[in-house]
Specification:
6 strands; 2 helices; mainly beta; single chain; flat
């Protein structure tokens, strides 16, 4: 949660799990030699209570012997409850800009589970070289089996 300071600073740099070359990568990004292309791998809730369903402890270290999280918690809980995070899954800034064309969807095969191909044109419209990763999410509002409210599928 960053609400206490997000409006007091010009930028927030989250650098999680960078690996052995992380220091070098960070220096290249801060120097402007490399465009930051990483994206958030989780959401940042506005308040801790947004992240879990009601009745689930926010402080499991305070004596709860066992904490059982339901199937839908974290980002998927926020999505299903329409809770807007401070920073969403996939959020990230760049030194350049990109435009995304109209996506097209093609089915290959018959039956209830055809193979689907989604195509979208991505163009770098800025002055700096960069990489853009398109994320594709799906949901099934008519599924008869219980499913998570949203899935990253590509």
């Amino acid at each position: 949660v960053v609400e206490d300071f997000v409006n007091l600073v010009p930028a927030i740099l989250w650098f999680g799990y960078p690996g052995p070359q992380g220091g070098r990568a960070l220096a290249d990004i801060l120097a402007g030699d490399v465009n930051p292309a990483g994206r958030m791998t989780s959401v940042t809730p506005r308040i801790p209570a947004d992240y879990v369903p009601k009745g689930i402890t926010l402080t499991p270290w305070d004596g709860a012997a066992e904490v059982k999280y339901p199937d839908v918690h974290g980002f998927k809980h926020m999505w299903s409850e329409k809770i807007k995070p401070r920073y969403s899954l996939g959020f990230g800034l760049s030194y350049t800009t990109f435009s995304h064309g109209m996506p097209s969807l093609e089915a290959d095969g018959q039956g209830p589970l055809p193979s689907l191909t989604l195509t979208v044109e991505v163009s770098n419209t800025g002055a700096v070289a960069g990489i853009e990763t398109v994320q594709v999410y799906a949901r099934c509002s008519d599924c008869t089996l219980k499913r998570l409210p949203i899935l990253l599928v590509g």
